[in-house]
Amino acid sequence: MLVIREGQASPSRLNHTLVALIPKKPSPTAIIEFRPISLCNVVYKLVTKVISNKLKIWLPSIISPNQSAFTAGRLIIDNILIAYEIFHAMHKDSRVGGAMALKLDMTKAYDRVE
Predict the structure, then answer these.
(1) Whole-angstrom Cα distance, residue 14 to residue 47?
(2) Is residue 70 classed exposed, middle or buried when 0-12, 13-18 and 19+ CB atoms within 10 A define those classes?
């Protein structure tokens, strides 16, 4: 049985994780064409699940109401609707002079490993 007491360092085997690369397409040629999958220790997963469940109580007061992605009860589509309303207002309002909007194409954050 694994027992971790306060003030003790965690056993090294608890932090072992295997990273497997899953190809996104049939014949990948570059590292960006793979999706990394972390295979964590079961005890590690249980400990992090307990900690995350304890943190759920305080998350609404910590996370900004403007963040909509990856937060329970909030939808990322809300950002698209807000952007549409801003563009519509920029187009219709003659007082907005010299306004500029940028559309950036960014790679998904969870597809990157550094």
Answers:
(1) 10
(2) exposed
- Both tokens of 101, joined, read 């909007």
pTM of the entire structure? 0.42
- pLDDT tens profile 56-104: 888 778 888 777 766 777 777 777 888 888 888 887 776 766 777 777 6
Kindly report the backbone phi and psi dihedral angles of residue 11, in degrees, each rounded to the nearest multiple of 5, phi listed first.
Answer: -60, 145
Name the token pair of 35. 């999706």
Residue 19 carries which side chain, given as an amino acid letter? V
Share above pLDDT 70 across residues of the chain, in percent, rounded to a whole number: 71
Q: Are 35 and 50 in contact (CB under 8 A)?
A: no
| Residue located via tokens 């909509």 | 68
Residue with structure tokens 């002079």?
97
> 86 vs 49, 90, 108, CA distance in Å?
39, 6, 24
